[in-house]
User: Which sequence fits this backbone?
């Protein structure tokens, strides 16, 4: 019997199914918490000066975005294979002429679509609240300002400088790249995990280790005199895990620093390379796995 | 129950990741250097910070949530300010600025709270009966404020704002007009610095004994920059120095305060 769909159609069918499944699980309810957090934060911070208010609003919103996206990425990816095994849907899919790497690719794309949509919704909400607050502060400044036109223009420019800046967009793109990497890493872990809980716990550990990878790398390459096994352990951590601190640029971006284009593209590329790498390892592990 | 993957396969996977990791490693190191040269990832999270902020906040900071932790600590510092707990504020500011060393606002406001508010509070502290001790305590807070600004400048040497604040602190809180003039001059030389900083540098020079000639030259140079710099204070001080330094009358600037373009002010509502 000839295959009815091309390879990409099969992948997109699985991806669409995975995405629909995640939506049905009401993962987007988390976004409600995010919106409450951003709006609540904006109201709470109104008693500070506008510079402090905007600074903290951006800090909290981008921090919350990073937290929610990482959370989504781990939970959604860790439960994909265990749930399919539990529901036995995996047997229905893999008994058809669907290669395992296509199955994994479909699953990963489904999660990435969900992460992309979440990033867009959270980003849109955050920027809307930020711009609305900016407009409100600009209006207050215009109405209450006493001074020359030149001084008023300078005061308004100061408000605009403190609120929205275009660097927030690449900051959010980098958060998405980090979440994609985590999703791929978690998918890889779930291919050899014995249960969903195990996959979640191991992925959370990998998340923390990833943030300490830079320290492990410096410890390994720094020439510190330590036991050989200690050096070996640091080397293993530095080589196997990604450097997640490389994706934590939003802390400095909200401080008003311009993100150089080469830093942005290299960070995105690093995220992409790790996402592909972990996907390939996931395929290798899943290929011969007994179901 | 799920069956396990062949352990040998897991071992191969780890080996493969190790080899791939060793290929990516030079890139990661280069990216780290690139980030640092662009002043990213410059915060140092050490054990001192862990002791100050507690384990939970420290782990959060390590996990990429430096900015939200700093924001929460800043709110705590604001609450401490409302209770005038200056020592607690100082400790919280230390933590916030360690977590977010590139946020100028945190350094600037921390310095302002210490050198202005805490100082004023110390001077009015009637529980301290000795005037000398009150002055000493006030001086201590001014020094803390200066320390915040100096460390902030060390972390952000390309930004004019903290130099400006340092100039203000030196001029108004320490009465060290020479240092204030130098700080304002440095601020004025940096990118995006507003034009008034040059005037402030000149004014502070004019208040520094022994720097009269330098002050005169600065004021004159500003005067020649055009109408925007010819504000009443500048013109008045220039005339003072022309007389004080015995400048020949034919070299005096032909100006008066009234020639300054007057901007009508909006009446307060």
Assistant:
């Amino acid at each position: 019997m000839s295959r009815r769909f091309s390879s990409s159609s099969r992948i997109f069918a699985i991806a669409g199914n995975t995405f629909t499944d995640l939506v049905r699980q009401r993962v987007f309810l988390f976004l409600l918490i995010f919106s409450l957090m951003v709006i609540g934060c904006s109201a709470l911070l109104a008693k500070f000066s506008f510079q402090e208010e905007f600074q903290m609003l951006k800090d909290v919103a981008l921090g919350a975005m990073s937290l929610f996206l990482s959370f989504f990425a781990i939970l959604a990816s860790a439960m994909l294979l265990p749930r399919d095994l539990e529901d036995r849907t995996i047997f229905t899919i893999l008994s058809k002429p669907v290669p395992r790497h296509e199955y994994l690719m479909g699953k990963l794309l489904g999660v990435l679509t969900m992460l992309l949509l979440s990033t867009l919704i959270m980003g849109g909400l955050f920027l809307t609240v930020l711009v609305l607050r900016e407009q409100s502060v600009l209006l207050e400044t215009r109405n209450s300002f006493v001074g020359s036109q030149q001084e008023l223009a300078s005061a308004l420019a100061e408000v605009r400088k403190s609120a929205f800046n275009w660097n927030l967009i690449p900051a959010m793109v980098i958060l998405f790249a980090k979440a994609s990497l985590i999703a791929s890493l978690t998918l890889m872990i779930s291919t050899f995990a014995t249960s969903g809980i195990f996959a979640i716990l191991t992925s959370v550990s990998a998340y923390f280790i990833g943030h300490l990878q830079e320290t492990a790398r410096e410890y390994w390459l720094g020439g510190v005199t330590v036991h050989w096994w200690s050096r070996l352990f640091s080397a293993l951590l530095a080589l196997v895990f990604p450097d997640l601190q490389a994706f934590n640029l939003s802390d400095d971006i909200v401080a008003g620093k311009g993100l150089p284009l080469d830093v942005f593209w290299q960070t995105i590329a690093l995220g992409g390379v790790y996402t592909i790498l972990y996907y390939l390892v996931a395929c290798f592990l899943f290929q011969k796995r007994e179901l | 129950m799920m069956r396990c993957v062949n352990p040998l396969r897991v071992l191969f996977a780890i080996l493969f990741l190790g080899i791939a990791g060793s290929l990516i490693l030079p890139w990661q190191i280069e990216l780290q250097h690139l980030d640092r040269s662009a002043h990213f990832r410059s915060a140092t999270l050490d054990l001192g910070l862990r002791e100050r902020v507690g384990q939970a906040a420290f782990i959060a900071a390590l996990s990429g949530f430096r900015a939200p932790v700093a924001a929460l600590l800043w709110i705590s510092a604001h609450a401490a300010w409302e209770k005038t707990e200056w020592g607690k504020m100082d400790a919280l500011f230390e933590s916030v600025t360690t977590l977010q060393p590139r946020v100028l606002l945190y350094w600037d406001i921390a310095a302002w709270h210490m050198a202005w508010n805490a100082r004023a509070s110390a001077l009015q502290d009637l529980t301290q009966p000795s005037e000398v001790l009150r002055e000493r305590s006030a001086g201590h807070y001014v020094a803390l404020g200066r320390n915040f600004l100096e460390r902030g400048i060390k972390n952000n040497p390309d930004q004019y704002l903290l130099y400006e604040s340092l100039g203000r602190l030196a001029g108004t809180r320490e009465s060290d007009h020479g240092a204030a003039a130098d700080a304002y001059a440095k601020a004025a030389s940096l990118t995006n610095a507003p034009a008034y900083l040059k005037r402030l540098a000149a004014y502070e020079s004019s208040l520094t004994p022994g720097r009269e000639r330098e002050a005169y030259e600065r004021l004159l140079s500003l005067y020649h920059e055009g109408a925007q710099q010819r504000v009443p204070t500048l013109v008045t001080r220039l005339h003072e120095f022309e007389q004080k330094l015995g400048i020949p009358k034919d070299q005096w600037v032909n100006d008066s305060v009234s020639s300054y373009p007057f901007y009508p002010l909006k009446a307060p509502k």
Remarks:
- Chain B touches chain A through 59 residues (CB under 8 Å).
